[in-house]
Amino acid sequence: MADRLDVWTYEIDGELEAAYDHAVTDDERAAAGRETVAQHLRSLVTANKIRAAENWSEKLPPDAEIRRVWTPRDPAALRARLDDDDLAVWSEDDVLHIVWRGSCEYPRISGGVQFLMWPVDGADDLWEVSLRIRRLDESVISVYVCPDAPTIVAEREWRGKLAPPALPEVSELQGTLEEHRLTFLGEPRTVALYVPPGTHGLIPAVCLADGQMLAAFAPVVEAAILAGTCPPVAVVGVFCAESGSGDPRSHEYLPAHDPERYAAHLAFVTDEVIPWADERFPASGVWLTAGASSGAVWALNAAQRRPDVFSGALGLSPGIPPETELHALTRNYVGGGTLESGFRWSADDWATKLSAAGAKVRHVEWAGGHDIYWWSQHFPPALTWLTVRPE
Fold first, then answer.
1. How far apart are the first and last CA of the chain?
2. Range 226-231, long-range pairs (CB < 8 A, 24+ positions)
3. Helix or strand or coil: residue 379?
4. Tens-of-pLDDT digits for all 391 residues of the chain?
5. Could you give the CA distance from residue 54 to residue 107 in angstroms, rounded to a whole number?
6. Do 291 and 208 contact (CB within 8 A), yes or no?
7. Can you tell me which residues the record assigns to a coiled coil (predicted)?
8. What would the DSSP string read from start to end of 124-153?
9. For residues 378 and 216, is the Cβ–Cβ distance under 8 A?
């Protein structure tokens, strides 16, 4: 049986990282006299810094999209770069530099790139990450500084000079976006409902995992609907669990993690959320699933399990490849970023196996990472492809 207090090492994108049970806190590990995640991460810095120093003058390996690089930095030059701000992000050739000023025990960068920040030698308040990135000029990368996940203390969006323009979004919704409270297994669960403006006739709908993302997606979707590049679609966002022991989101979204909880959550969506939503807009009866990260795993598996309810699935950056035999009864829009290795491989696997099963598949990639920016950019074109059938 696995030791839930254990912390071990794995390698990703040339960097040694800590793996552990996210349901266990470092306080629990310390109380049991065990190595904490923070201690384990500190123990890896020296080895990772040696690797990064060797990478400073080296090109990316042919099979790599990103590698950390390092060289000693001048604190005064970095402070000048920051000026009066606490976060600076800039590029030099194919290297993206990130510097943050703050007090913390090993902050982490999340968003489009995800790395532990290192302290700058000779400064007690500066932290840095430098990354050599393939196709950096084409990339859009959200940068979040997280001293204590999921807390974000600073953020920037870095955009390469050759990156595609962002999709338009409305400054104020003409349609409706409302939050409601339903009950799932005796606990309140937030459900958001977006209905586009000026609907004439019946319209399809999509059920979005991690429904809190709908606030970011709705302005982009509505702009596409008003421009005529996306058909009118209602979106129901089912928020992830707000409380619970361990990692309740994984219990509900990953079928192999907790089969009973996944099945119960899927039944909640199909038997309660969808009938509830169908009464609140002119529903055509056509439903899709959508999600990102673990939510993509939920969406793709939900459509596979209930093709009688869902005609298509949108899965962006799925964290786990398919674990059961697949069928061809639904259309599937699947994608991953070049800078999110494991999620990109998983998306590739979903696309390959769905295609092999005879399903209709659109497989996309973007020059970026595990990033809500890119998920929002693919949401409208995915809905168009999933709902508009060619003659």
1. 54
2. 226/170, 226/174, 226/197, 227/168, 229/380, 229/381, 229/384, 230/380, 230/381, 230/383, 230/384, 231/203, 231/204, 231/383, 231/384, 231/387, 231/388
3. helix
4. 479 999 999 999 999 999 998 888 899 999 999 999 989 998 999 999 999 999 999 999 999 999 999 999 999 999 999 999 999 999 999 999 999 999 888 899 999 999 999 999 999 999 999 999 999 999 999 999 998 767 899 999 999 999 999 999 999 999 999 999 999 999 999 999 999 998 889 999 999 999 999 999 999 999 999 999 999 999 999 999 876 666 889 999 999 999 999 999 999 999 999 999 999 999 999 999 999 999 999 999 999 999 999 999 999 999 999 999 999 999 999 999 999 999 999 999 999 999 999 999 999 999 999 999 999 999 999 999 999 864 3
5. 23
6. yes
7. none
8. SSEEEEEEEETTGGG-EEEEEEESBTTB--
9. no
Per-residue b or e along 186-198, where b marks 16 or more CB atoms closer than 10 Å to that residue's CB: eeebebbbbbbee
Q: Of 358, 384, 179, whose CA–CA distance to 288 is shortest? A: 384
Rounded Cα–Cα distance for residues 365 and 333 (Å)? 11
Phi, psi torsion values for 161, nearest 5 degrees = -70, -20
Quickly count: other Cβ atoms within 10 Å of residue 373's Cβ.
18
Q: How is the chain split among helix, strand and coil, in percent rounded to 5?
A: 30, 30, 40
Tokens of 388: 């508009």
189-228 pLDDT per residue, tens: 999 999 999 888 999 999 999 999 999 999 999 999 999 9
In the block, residue with structure tokens 């990102």: 292
Q: Which two tokens stand for residue 28?
A: 């629990």
The answer for residues whose C-beta is within 8 angstroms of residue 172's C-beta and 6 or more apart is none
Q: Which structural domains are found in the chain, ordered by start? A: 49-159 (2.60.40), 176-387 (3.40.50.1820)
Please tell me the total number of residues recorded for the chain in this structure.
391
Write out the two tokens for 65: 């999209």
Angle CA 37–41–47, to nearest 5: 155
Could you read off the pLDDT of 123-134 as tens digits, one per residue? 999 999 999 999
The position carrying tokens 């800039």 is 90
Contacts of 382 (CB under 8 A, 6+ apart): 290, 314, 316, 333, 362
Alpha carbon distance 19, 9 (integer Å) = 6
